[in-house]
Design a protein that fits this description.
Strand order of the largest sheet: 1-4
Number of strands: 4
Shape: elongated
Number of helices: 0
Radius of gyration: 17 Å
Largest sheet: 2 strands, antiparallel
Bound molecules: zinc ion
Helix content: under 10%
Order of helices and strands: EEEE
Mean pLDDT: 93
Distance between the termini: 26 Å
Length: 79
């Protein structure tokens, strides 16, 4: 099952328990990072460009249901 992606006007809601705020999201992404190392060899990522990204799974933190989310309107959203 594919997970619907939230937009500016929508948010996730667990269809089983109604949770709106807490999810474990498994995401895979392809990212280019600009790594800047200092003289001691300590790396720091100064820029990140996300080439592609996909959500693989969303698990509800309350009832532990996997991929049982629907999209609902955000409060006060301008749709
Ligand atoms: Zn739930």
């Amino acid at each position: 099952m594919t997970v619907p992606k939230p937009t500016d006007g929508t948010r996730w809601r667990c269809t089983l328990c109604g949770n709106l705020t807490r999810f474990d999201v498994t995401r895979s992404s392809k990212v280019v990072e600009y790594v800047h190392l200092d003289l001691a060899g300590e790396p720091r990522i100064e820029e990140q460009e996300v080439l592609s990204e996909s959500i693989e799974s969303v698990r509800c933190r309350w009832c532990d249901a996997a991929d049982q989310v629907e999209l609902v309107e955000r409060p006060g959203a301008q749709v």
